[in-house]
Design goal:
The complex is a heterodimer of chains A (113) and B (113).
Chain A: E1 4-7, E2 10-13, E3 19-25, E4 31-37, E5 43-49, E6 56-57, E7 64-68, E8 74-78, E9 87-94, E10 103-104, E11 108-112
Parallel strand pairs in A: 2-11
Antiparallel strand pairs in A: 1-3, 3-8, 4-5, 4-9, 5-6, 7-8, 9-10, 9-11
Chain B: E1 4-7, E2 10-14, E3 19-25, E4 32-38, E5 45-51, E6 56-59, E7 62-67, E8 72-77, E9 86-93, E10 101-103, E11 107-112
Parallel strand pairs in B: 2-11
Antiparallel strand pairs in B: 1-3, 3-8, 4-5, 4-9, 6-7, 7-8, 9-10, 9-11
Classes of the chains: A mainly beta (113), B mainly beta (113).
Chain lengths: 113, 113
């Protein structure tokens, strides 16, 4: 039981490049989330998916797109990376409607040059 | 919009002393309040949570109190140890979706041996 798995763990991009961050969970959770973490700003929600087939914007969605591929997988895409998107990205999952804690992946450390 | 404030942003205590972190939230409909601990370079992990039907919850050296009238909740760590050094985040769920939480900006706790 791996929990929440994120790939890659580290990535360096040039401005304008695109890439997809992958996230998969094996806990049969309905809801999945993408956060970015910047120094002194806590965790800010980029997008979330309450259930398979649905996605919604969070606090900071600009410059990102997401896909809920199936119940297990939720990917985050940067179409044209900008230096302001340099951050640590965390994926998380939880059961819907049960007020259960979020389970986080190990994060992806992304640098945009 | 929904907001969670957290104080202090940094906290240093001597080993064996107590540490208190305080949070306030804005959404009167919030009913789930988790606390996460994040060690350097690691994922956030739940350490304790409380729901609005109780005013206090304790787990060994950690306790959380909730005052729904004042819309604030606090984390108390007693007999602090060096391994308690980490960043602590409070969070509160929102009325738009009980799967979504808003995180505070974090408190960096240092326990001095």
């Amino acid at each position: 039981n791996a929990g929440v798995t994120q790939t890659p763990k580290f990535q360096v991009l040039k401005t304008g490049q695109s890439m997809t961050l992958q996230c998969a969970q094996d806990m049969n959770h309905n809801s999945m989330y993408w956060y970015r973490q910047d120094p002194g700003m806590g965790l800010r929600l980029i997008y979330y998916s309450a259930s398979e087939g649905t996605t919604d914007k969070g606090e900071v969605p600009n410059g990102y797109n997401v896909s809920r591929l199936n119940k297990r997988e939720f990917s985050l895409r940067l179409e044209s990376a900008a230096p302001s998107q340099t951050s640590v990205y965390f994926c998380a999952s939880t059961n819907r409607g049960s007020n259960q804690p979020q389970h986080f992946g190990d994060g992806t450390r992304l640098s945009i040059l | 919009g929904e907001n969670v404030e957290q104080h202090p942003s940094t906290l240093s205590v001597q080993e064996g002393d107590s540490a208190v972190i305080k949070c306030t939230y804005s959404d009167s409909a919030s009913n789930y309040f988790p606390w996460y601990k994040q060690e350097l370079g690691k994922r956030p992990q739940l350490i304790i949570d409380i729901r609005s039907n109780v005013g206090e919850k304790k787990d060994q050296r950690i306790a959380v109190t909730l005052n729904k009238t004042a819309k604030h909740f606090s984390l108390h760590i007693t007999e602090t140890q060096p391994e308690d050094s980490a960043v602590y985040f409070c969070a509160a769920n929102t009325k738009t979706s009980y799967d979504k939480v808003i995180f505070g900006p974090g408190t960096s706790l240092s326990v001095i041996p």
